[in-house]
Amino acid sequence: MDKITENLAYLFKNWSGENITTISALPISGSERQYFRMKSQLAGALGVYSPNRAETNAFIEFTKHFRRHGLPVPEIYATGDGPDYYLIQDLGDTSLFSQVEILEPYENLTPDILSYYKKALEELTRFQIIAGKNLDYDLCYPRKEFDRQSMLWDLNYFKYNYLKLAGIPFNEQELENDFDTLTGFLLQAGRDHFMYRDFQARNILIQDNKLYFIDYQGGRKGGLQYDIASLLFQVRAALPFSTRELLLDHYIDVVGKMISLEPGPFKEHYYGFVLMRLLQVLGAYGFRGLFEHKEHFLRSIPFAVENIKWFREHVKLPVHLPGIMHCLDRICEAVEDRKKTPVGKPPQLIITINSFSYKKGIPEDKTDNGGGFVFDCRALPNPGREEKYRAFTGKDDIIIDYLKEKPEVTGFLENVFELVDRSVENYIFRDFSHLMISFGCTGGQHRSVYCAEALVKHLKSEYEVNVKLNHQEIGNPEKPVQP
């Protein structure tokens, strides 16, 4: 063990009275925090190492405050002598985003997922309005309010990390004038409530059909509309635009029963915050993609541009922002030009994805690489045990619907995607030519086939790679007639 895991193991033993039996690191996100899944014979927890003490203190104190108000946030089990180490409740890996990610972009949500979104918005009002009343805003990091300074940070992030890096021409003074106009307009919405700041589907976890909320440590005082914009215009979730309007109206109805609210002006400011969020996200994609050359963020830019196109076609703000709108139009044109004229060399990486039966052995890697990922699907729910599913495979809708509804399967795939993405991005950067990924289950008919198909879909949406799919046991049979 290194120092971090040693300290967390010591904290775990003091809390549970048991030595850990397993400890595994979770995929690292964009922050400095590191998470570890820790288990003993009778207990389990997430161990967290967080070197940013101001941020950590905000998370711990906010969590205590939210739990006093009955909000569904993780329980804090133990903290170390300093705030660098702590243990929290393990809420699993199934997020609301993982439920949406497996849908086609802009595909209508299933009734269950739509219900989750509505519930999430209802809980959000409790964070913002009820728990936000007596929250100690002196804990907020890095600022107490989403004020003019905070907004200008986000807008300049967009200017310097996207416009300049992408080579989008702009008039500096005109853009600065628009930034001043936009911030003045948004400040009219008020800053009287708790603003979650990072309210997105990745930070909403699902366990036993209940929603839990994480990553609110960046919260501060602000306008209600920002968090709605963050959730409904989350780029990779790609919600249908009609559904976004339906959910916005649902939120307004809920808030209107709690405080005085005029829907017309509220929506005008809401779309102003949508614009703010679109610009902030492009700044992040510019930094992570155009500057750090991370493929995932480069591949996310066209999804962000779809939001911009919709905004330009459907939204007219009550303030004049010619410089910003000119930049948005140029961004859309630049992305369309890149689609028409491919830049650089064609994709070199070939990814072979297999499904197989463990009874017949793991597929052989016939390249010089000597193998790749092998994922064991046998711990997942098995539709093959039920007579009505046996004639079908993981390519059939009846099996897809069965497995898609199982949180264990969704969580499994989410972890698979995280692991595979790291290798794919590294292999692309290093000009590797092959990667093999295999999914095995008992018969090679249902679970392994479904997971292989899901990974193919994920990779094609994320990367410019060649993907070859081989179902070792089923080939490409004709589908039986579904009942």
Q: How are the secondary structure elements laid out?
A:
Elements: H1 3-16, E1 22-25, E2 34-39, E3 44-49, H2 53-68, E4 76-79, E5 85-88, H3 96-101, H4 111-130, H5 148-166, H6 172-187, E6 193-195, E7 204-207, E8 210-213, E9 220-222, H7 225-232, H8 241-256, H9 263-291, H10 295-314, H11 322-340, E10 350-357, E11 373-376, H12 397-404, H13 407-429, E12 434-441, H14 447-462, E13 466-471
Parallel strand pairs: 10-12, 10-13, 11-12
Antiparallel strand pairs: 1-2, 2-3, 3-5, 4-5, 6-9, 7-8
Helix pairs in contact: 4-8, 5-6, 5-9, 7-9, 9-10, 10-11, 13-14
Briefly characterize the structure.
Helices cover 48% and strands 13% of the residues. The chain is of the alpha/beta class and 483 residues long. The strands form 4 sheets. The protein has a 5-stranded antiparallel sheet with strand order 1-2-3-5-4, with helices on both faces.
Question: Please, could you describe this protein's structure?
Answer:
- There is one protein chain.
- By secondary structure, the protein is α/β, with parallel strands linked by helices.
- It has three domains: 3-88, Phosphorylase Kinase, domain 1 (2-Layer Sandwich); 96-340, Aminoglycoside phosphotransferase (APH), C-terminal lobe (Aminoglycoside 3'-phosphotransferase, Chain: A, domain 2); 350-471, no CATH class.
- The chain has 14 helices and 13 strands.
- It has helices at residues 3-16, 53-68, 96-101, 111-130, 148-166, 172-187, 225-232, 241-256, 263-291, 295-314, 322-340, 397-404, 407-429, 447-462; strands at 22-25, 34-39, 44-49, 76-79, 85-88, 193-195, 204-207, 210-213, 220-222, 350-357, 373-376, 434-441, 466-471.
- The strands form four sheets. A five-stranded antiparallel sheet has the order 1-2-3-5-4, sandwiched between helices. It has a four-stranded parallel sheet with strand order 11-12-10-13, covered by helices on one side.
- A hairpin with a 5-residue loop joins strand 4 and strand 5 (85-88).
- It is globular, with a radius of gyration of 24 Å.
